[in-house]
Write a structure and sequence with these properties.
Blueprint: E1 54-55, H1 64-68, E2 74-75, E3 83-84, E4 104-105, E5 122-125, H2 137-141, E6 147-150, E7 161-164, H3 174-178, E8 184-187, H4 200-203, H5 210-220
Antiparallel strand pairs: 1-4, 2-3, 5-8, 6-7
Length: 221
């Protein structure tokens, strides 16, 4: 038997590879399920603009944030102060993670911490949670085409598992919110995007072992 997912009228069957993907041809819209997916339709995803990220006067106009924003909410000329459109901002934190002078405040006014290139927030797939139905919810919602399906060698009768292209992913969390099976998450978690003092071994987790420690430290902070 297949595994039913949210929004589907029937469970996806484990058909052989190459069978019609009814999930891809679903008639309902992502816009009716995940508010952040509204960015695809050009409709503002928020009603309360006071919760948007903001850029302060120390901005150097490097345009790094502009290139990372998944909803094109940031504008400004090079070497001049940039501005975030409060009605378009989805609070994903992708801009703050790449701002060299740390000039971006999050939705509650805390300074966002800049990450080294090799430690930037990145989507990760929990393969045991990815149901292999070919639903492509995370793939369809990604503005940067950073997700795709690949063959699942241990589940030959599945449509495949989601995989992440680290070079394209900006860690915007749209995929994390779209997935109904907790099969995609962004590492590090949102709590560590703020400019706080944590032990080095937590800020630079190796082989994924630091994620749990980081979450525990953030919860105790």
């Amino acid at each position: 038997m297949g595994v039913a997912g949210p929004g589907f009228g029937r469970a996806p069957s484990r058909c052989a590879a190459g069978a019609p993907r009814f999930v891809r041809r679903r008639t309902f819209s992502l816009m009716t399920i995940w508010p952040n997916a509204m960015v695809r339709s050009g409709v503002s995803p928020r009603e309360d603009s006071s919760l948007a990220y903001t850029i302060i006067e120390t901005c150097i106009g490097c345009t790094a944030c502009v290139k990372k924003c998944p909803v094109e909410a940031i504008t400004g000329l090079r070497n001049e102060l940039h501005v975030i459109d409060a009605e378009l901002c989805i609070d994903c934190g992708a801009c703050g993670a790449v701002c060299p002078p740390e000039s971006i405040l999050d939705e509650v006014g805390d300074i966002c911490r800049t990450f080294p290139r090799r430690e930037l927030p990145l989507a990760k797939v929990v393969e045991e949670n990815c149901i292999g139905s070919g639903c492509e919810l995370c793939i369809n919602i990604c503005p940067f085409d950073a997700l795709s399906l690949r063959d699942a060698p241990n589940h030959h009768d599945y449509y495949g598992m989601a995989t992440v292209d680290a070079k394209k992913c900006v860690g915007c969390r749209l995929c994390e919110q779209a997935c109904g099976w907790s099969a995609v998450y962004i590492d590090p978690p949102r709590e560590l995007l703020k400019k706080k003092v944590y032990p080095v071994e937590i800020l630079t987790p190796k082989k994924g072992k630091g994620l749990k420690r980081a979450q525990e430290a953030a919860a105790e902070a």
